Amino acid sequence: MVFRGLNQYLFYARLHYEREKTMPFKILKKQELVPTIHLMDIAAPRIAKKAQPGQFVILRINETGERIPLTIADFDRKKGTITMIFQAVGKTTTQLSSLKAGDELLDFTGPLGNPAHIENLGTVILVGGGVGVAPVFPQARAFKESGNKVISIIGSRSANLLLWEDRMREVSDELYITTDDGTKGHHGFVTDIVKKLLENGTKVDRVVAIGPPVMMRAVAGVTRPFNVKTIVSLNSIMVDGTGMCGACRVLVGNETKFACVDGPEFDAHLVDFTLLMNRLAMYQPEEKQAFEKYKCEREGCTCLMNPPKKVD
Ligand code: FAD
Ligand code: FES
Ligand code: MG
Fold it and tell me: Which domains are assigned to the chain?
């Protein structure tokens, strides 16, 4: 591990120290909100004390587990809890989804990344796609509390996969829903609504979009001609989360940035989304293999990883 200066070493040492003092981290609540998307509350008072909208944690389930980043979807300073919403997409998130209240996580580090820039701007459009609705929620609440008019647009593939409609409604002046298959709200994409609002002359001072990279790129494409500042939260692959490994590097305005320490939020109009998507797909064969192995071990099957010995 190469440290970039004393400050970075001290930062890492402090994170390690805090982890040692508070581990392990108890799961207080676990709930499947919609198919494949889960909510988890973790007892982490030191992190809850400092957490801000826009920040994330990096967790590890056990000694042999990998580190994965998840956004802080909510926090309760009084109760000392952090809420995460995650989608089971591969080995680690599926393993995480199999845990229940009372179980523990070995590592839980944060808050990481820069807080979102929340200020009184006027009118702010918050766009959340899929599981991206969860990280959008604390920002929508904070923009509302700062005196903004909040217009929220949340979308999913289908009505049964739509997250937190009630919570988003509570913190929004206007709420639009879109589904790809038309089972709820507007039949189409979140970008259709952003475009319609801008074309109708709605004065918009900021757009914040969080969701799959392809959605964030599309929102950036819609807002660029209207010259509306647009912020996206980049979900590049992360390992240490403290600016040391370089795994999360992204290109923003032709400059290399580390999403974990320089972001995760960036100006959408400057992000190289093609590079982001290529880098996100870099380890797919290994990820697939790890998931197959996990499923085999969990189901006690011997087919893939332990093929039966040949009998002569
Ligand atoms: P795998 O099969 O290993 O990976 C599936 C895909 O996830 C990969 O192809 C890759 O594109 C991505 N991925 C894999 N490993 C990592 C990694 N270490 N870091 C980042 N991406 C990875 N997901 C949520 O559901 N909810 C959230 O709130 C959330 N917040 C995030 C915040 C940040 C700052 C970042 C960077 C990512 C966030 N993600 C979130 C994505 C989440 O980290 C990945 O879905 C998860 O790591 C996949 O792990 P896996 O082993 O289950 O799947
Ligand atoms: Fe290692 Fe960002 S995750 S530098
Ligand atoms: Mg993985």
Answer: 6-112 (2.40.30.10), 123-280 (3.40.50.80), 285-312 (no CATH)
